[in-house]
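Data card: per-record layout.
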Amino acid sequence: MLCVLALVGAPTAAAADTWLPHPADAEWTYQWSDSVYSGAPAKEKVTVKSQVGRTFTLAWSTLDQGNPPEAPVSLGNMVLQETNSGLLNIDWSSTLPPSEFPVLCRTLSGCNNSLASTWYLLVWGNRAPTLVDPLLKGVTWSATGGADGDVGSFSQYLGREPVTVPAFPQAVIAAKVRTDVTQAGALGDPYGSGVRIVWWVYGVGPVKVEFQHAGGTNAPVTTSVLASTNQKPVMPPPDANYFPLRKGAKLRYRWSNTKHMKKPSVQAFAVDDAVNGSARISVKHVSGPIRVAGAYGFSLRTDGLTNLWGATQAASLAKFPALGPRFLSVDRRRHFFTPFDLLTYGFGPIITAYPRVGETWSSKVPSRDYSIFGVKGSTRVLGFRRVTVPAGRFNVLALRSTLTQQGFPYGSGVRTSYFAAGKGLVKLVFAHRDGSRSVVELVR
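The structure for this 444-residue chain is written out next.
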């Protein structure tokens, strides 16, 4: 009997090289077992049932897989959606879990929670997102799960390591994600809480899941491994994080202009809050001719790093040329008061999620960025360099942007930005078309 465990849902999406490709003919067979409750390991075959746009449905079944009689029986559907922030679980339906498994609800009747399947193990406590993307070093996220949203989790990307499973007896490189899961108040406590480790292979999907349930020395451990698949591992994109949005991070910059501000302005930046790939970064005056205070909002998604908003108040002894665009009133035009004003000026993304040497992108008309800045141009990823700034010597990735704001030479020119993995912006040079040159350097 199907659809006992159900939310509200519909199907499905398109396939490519991702952390979970889902072409119409994709198949995966997992073998999973619980050290206490499953009786015997169960093989379950997973196929793509349907897909519409970015939403797709995976179907699984333990039938006709050669399982012993004491192995759990399970049939179900898992509805997932690809977004620019990662993979979301938006629905599920399945047969009931075996009666001997702990009840993962406050009451026995109408319980729509289960851990009796590989895909239930994967989405337990982290439905939105199940997996973040871009998956970069230092990335963490919080989520909820369960039919009533009563399961909480904190996930952390731990990096990459080789993993061996039956489907890949020769080790393949996997992204390792640890999730701490908490559920309280269920009849089957503490089974719904614990630590889950998932190994994801690019171009394949999850290849191994280990759920260490809470409950003392004899607590169960549920394990699932990929037994076979027709999907092929693909080299994952680099996981360097060139603009980490890590709460508590602090940076100090100095910036000057050869014509308009020869004495540097020193400013301190701090990541005040960061949630699921978005952050609020504040700025305050340290020394120099610009007394400034403000904040910026940034978001890192699969389409790159985007400046969402910025608000500053400044009193400047330095006199800067005017910026456009002409189609905005003077009181609505931007100013260059901070290094982040110079960095975010023009068009997005500031840097792509997985930057590649030689990659380029251009401004668009019409667009939100053009409506704010009135700038046309393009950005190119130049490659890797070594730069020395007061904060030290860094290996950096250099990007060059050509910017044209019609009628405003100070708002036009060539900007070269230098990003260090795990640190962020360490240097920026803006050669303005009025003949001046702005230089930003990381102090510490």
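Known properties of this structure: DSSP finds three helices and 25 strands in the chain. Residues 85 and 221 are 30 Å apart (CA to CA).

See the next section for split statistics.
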